[in-house]
Amino acid sequence: MKQKGTTYVDSDTDNKAFTLIELLVVLAVISFLLAILLPAVQKARSLTYRVICKNNLKQIAMAWDMYLDDHDGKFYRLMENADILYGGWQGTDHPDQLRVLNEYLEIDPLPTSPKDAEIFKCPGDKGNTVPVRFYQEVGTSYRTNILLIGQDHIGELPEGELRTEINKRIKGLTRQTVDNHSRVLLIGDFGWVYQWLPEYPEGPYFHEKKHTLGQMDPDIPKYYNLAFLDGHVKFLNVQKGVFITDEYTPLFDEELYKYAYGN
């Protein structure tokens, strides 16, 4: 000890190591904070994905509006897969199909790299994870309403009067003949069509991990970003097998409603 006045100073006071109890307390506090913060971080990430997808869909809906202006309002149709091969990059499954919407977004009609068409990618569509990898496989994370942009004959719906009436009217369908543009769906997160169509398995989901395919709970509402024919976008619960709700419908003609009630 060294004496300094009446105060004694211990020359060993620089040894300030944590005790085991202090270390355990610190670890417990850190674990507690992580438990509180991680759900908030995950929620923020999910919200960010939704916002990016919403903005992508707004721009894609605007591109469709320009496409329709150039084609007298007539919707794009192919023998098959127009609802998924309309835009984006070439993907791994359909490398030769030109993407007609790309020119309206100043993108090459057949990009060979996924980096060249990222407006068609939702960040929740992870690319290398199974099964949510639509951008990797088909070139886009967004799928159109097959009753507007699809085939001239719809086979995905159950047999019955509704399908018969749709197929009577669908060939040559134009924007001008569609009723209620603010209610009719145009395009949305890829899984919305799986979720809506009555005979498909429930749809995969971009925005929350618990909703990926194979982990579906039929009692949990499934929400998707959806763009309407008038261009606005909403985050909506898509109901399995339901053709008409207070917020949306895939049906292009109000005369079809009488055949759809009960579905």
Structural write-up:
This protein is α+β, with helices and mostly antiparallel strands and 263 residues long. The chain has one domain (17-260). The chain is 28% helix and 10% strand. The strands form 2 sheets. The chain has a 4-stranded antiparallel β-sheet. Strands 1-2 form a two-stranded antiparallel ribbon. The longest helix is centred in the first third of the chain and has 51 residues, at 20-70. Mean pLDDT is 84; it is low at 210-215.
Which descriptors apply to this entry?
263 residues; alpha+beta; 4-stranded antiparallel sheet; two-stranded antiparallel sheet; 5 helices; 6 strands
Work out the count of structural domains. 1
Report the order of strands and helices: EEHHEHEHEEH
Spatial separation of the terminal alpha carbons:
91 Å
The proportion of residues in beta strands is 5-15%
Strand order of the largest sheet: 3-4-5-6
Helix percent reads 25-40%
Inertia-based shape? globular
| Overall strand count | 6
Note the main sheet: 4 strands, antiparallel
Q: How many helices does DSSP assign?
A: 5
Low-confidence parts lasting 5 or more residues at pLDDT below 50? 210-215
Which secondary-structure class do the elements indicate? alpha+beta
Quick check: average pLDDT? 84
Rg, nearest Å: 27 Å
Helix/strand layout:
Layout lengths: L1 E3 L2 E3 L10 H51 L63 H5 L3 E3 L16 H9 L15 E5 L2 H5 L26 E6 L4 E5 L19 H4 L3
Antiparallel strand pairs: 1-2, 3-4, 4-5, 5-6
